[in-house]
Amino acid sequence: MAFPGRMAVRNRYLLLKAKLLAHAIWTGKLSLRKVINVLVCSAAFTLRRTRSGAAPFILSLEVGNECNANCLFCRDAKGRIYDTDPKALPLGGISKGVMPFEMAADLIRQCSKDSLIAVLYTNGEPLLYKDLPRLIQACSRVRLLSMIATNGLLLNEKNITEMLSAGIDFIKVQMSGFTQDVYAVQVRFGNVERLKDNIRLLARKRDEMKCPTVLMLDFIAYSYNSHQLPDVRAFCRELGVSLNIRPGNPRGGLEGREPELSAEALPLPGGCDWPWKGLQVNFNGEVLMCCDGVTFSGSQPYAVFRPGDPVAVIWNGAKARQARATLATQGRGAIPICAQCYRKDLAFKW
Ligand code: SF4
After folding, report:
1. Which of 290, 295, 330, 344 best tests ligand 1's pocket when mutated (most atoms within 8 Å of CB)?
2. What is the DSSP letter of 227?
3. What does the pLDDT read at residue 3?
4. What is the rounded average pLDDT of the residues 84-106?
5. Is the peptide bond before 275 cis (omega within 30 degrees of 0)?
6. Is the pLDDT assigned to residue 199 strictly greater than 50?
7. How many whole angstroms separate alpha carbon 255 and alpha carbon 247?
8. Whose CA is nearest to atom 7 of ligand 1?
9. Contacts from 103-107 at CB under 8 Å and sequence distance 24+?
10. Which of 41, 84, 280, 292 best tests ligand 1's pocket when mutated (most atoms within 8 Å of CB)?
């Protein structure tokens, strides 16, 4: 079976974007001011201006980088996160921590009028963040869309009810196999029957509570699990959950057995719109160009954010403008993290 991806056909998530747009309109979370900010950020990127809109239209927060699943491509069996900086050792360079609630809440508050969505996870499992429902509530209170992606293994009646009640807009759950033998190839600590039960519960609670939350199962496709796609499709159809299929990363033990994510030569030509449209904040307050920065130990933060610091000043500050100018005039090869990056634009990675 051929997979979408391997960069030949990029997953643009068009259907998902259409659903989220309709959802934002329906829930009153889209304003003229936000639309104008999207247009200004996009125009600034197209014209390669170093000053962007009033705020990033995607605010991405690493609320914590611990995880309960320890997937092969992400971290080793001891939970040490792979450092993607080729100058660093592969293990041990990425420290772990949790973002203080006050920091996350202040970032959300400051961006709420102009930003479209807060992404409440980056590399870690967001259900391990004890203040997640409060954070979703903080987004809902200021009419900012919120989303998480989760491995789904920790979903239960309590946290599902809390998240749905708080008004979460989009939940994406990963799956890389429909039977335990296949699922366990990639996920070190997880039971797929538990995962399926949890997804059933999530869909049932959404229906019972009449929540408009968009649910999506994200099937991470490898050649070893492709034969299970028909079962996954039927599972999603039965539950009324959207299905997305994306290529899996062979790093961590599947190299040579699975195709590389991309055969394109690096650095990629052309620009990247992340620095004009999105902002990443790590758990420790480091403000980064994009979400890949949280696993790249040589990242050069724009600033270290503390509650009360003006986000708008950082967003269009000297370091952010310098990064945009470098990308625009010298290309990706001039910035180490961009030189080894396969992303094409602001979207889910694959
Ligand atoms: S090229 Fe890659 S690393 Fe650089 S800003 Fe874009 S997404 Fe981030």
Report:
1. 290
2. G
3. 45
4. 91
5. no
6. yes
7. 14
8. 343
9. 103/281, 103/285, 103/305, 103/306, 103/307, 104/61, 104/63, 104/131, 104/135, 104/138, 105/134, 105/135, 105/138, 105/307, 106/307, 106/308, 107/59, 107/61, 107/281, 107/305, 107/311
10. 292
pLDDT band at 88; cut points 50, 70, 90: confident
| Cα-to-centroid distance, 148 and ligand 1 (Å) | 21
Percent above pLDDT 90 for the chain: 83
Tell me the three state secondary structure of residue 220. Answer: strand
Rounded Cα distance between 232 and 224, Å, is: 14
> Measured in angstroms, how far is the CA atom of residue 271 from the centroid of ligand 1?
9
Task: Report, as an integer, the average pLDDT of 2-22.
Answer: 67
Token pair in block for residue 303: 């600033």
Has residue 246 got a pLDDT over 80? yes
Neighbouring CB atoms inside 10 A of 103's CB total 20
Cα–Cα distance, 333 to 340 (Å, whole number):
8
- Ligand 1 centroid to 338 CA: how many Å? 5
Which residue ranges have their beta carbon within 6 Å of ligand 1? 272, 274-275, 289-290, 292, 332, 337-338, 341, 343
Q: Is 237 left (phi over 0), alpha (psi -120 to 50) or beta?
A: alpha
- 303: which residues sit within 8 A by CB, 6+ positions away? 286, 287, 309, 314, 317, 319
Per-residue confidence band for 10, with pLDDT thresholds at 50, 70 and 90: low
Answer positive or negative: Cα dihedral of 38, 347, 171, 284: negative
